[in-house]
Design brief:
The protein has helices at about 30-40, 55-60, 80-90, 100-105, 135-145; strands at about 20-25, 45-50, 65-70, 95-100, 125-130. Helix 1 (about 30-40) packs across helix 5 and helix 2 (about 55-60) packs parallel to helix 3. With about 150 residues, it is α/β, with parallel strands linked by helices. Mean pLDDT is about 80; it is low at about 1-15 and about 110-120.
């Protein structure tokens, strides 16, 4: 069951001790709990979770987010379909994709289909391969949330 969005400050207006807001889109309860604990408790992010990509689209458009973390395999729409929807609705929000099989998603050399974060490539701003260690997840989220997305 998705948690509701709440009026937390954005990264640029973050309260003391809060690094920013992260929207997690994950249908596996264990993976969602892992990411929520790592990013919320260890990372100091304000975290909202939903398993439903349609709800994620509404939440993403409802307020300021510093990052969307999404799984590739989701019900109703894939993580790539969600990525495309997010690029239309909130193009400035970085998207970090989690997948167990990146070669199936982006075959060939990285430059062949564009680079991560290039809006024309259909690629996310970052890609993590499952299983992912807590330190790697936190590091990737911190970097992308701090850097944001370039205009375009």
């Amino acid at each position: 069951m998705p948690s509701s969005a709440h009026s937390s400050p954005s990264h640029s207006e973050a309260a003391p001790g809060v690094r920013g807001r992260v929207l997690i889109v994950e249908d596996d309860p264990e993976a969602a709990l892992f990411a929520t604990v790592v990013l919320g408790e260890r990372g100091g992010f304000d975290v909202t979770h939903t398993a439903d990509p349609a709800v994620a689209c509404v939440l993403a458009a409802s307020g300021p987010w510093d990052l969307v973390l999404t799984d590739l395999d989701l019900p109703v729409m894939s993580g790539l379909e969600l990525l495309a929807a997010l690029r239309e609705r909130v193009p400035r929000v970085p998207v970090l994709l989690l997948t167990a099989s990146p070669a199936d998603v982006f075959p060939g050399p990285a430059g062949a289909a564009g680079r991560p974060g290039d809006p024309a490539s259909g690629r996310p701003d970052g890609l993590l391969v499952k299983p992912v260690r807590a330190e790697r997840l936190l590091s990737a989220v911190m970097k992308l949330a701090a850097d944001g997305r370039p205009a375009g």
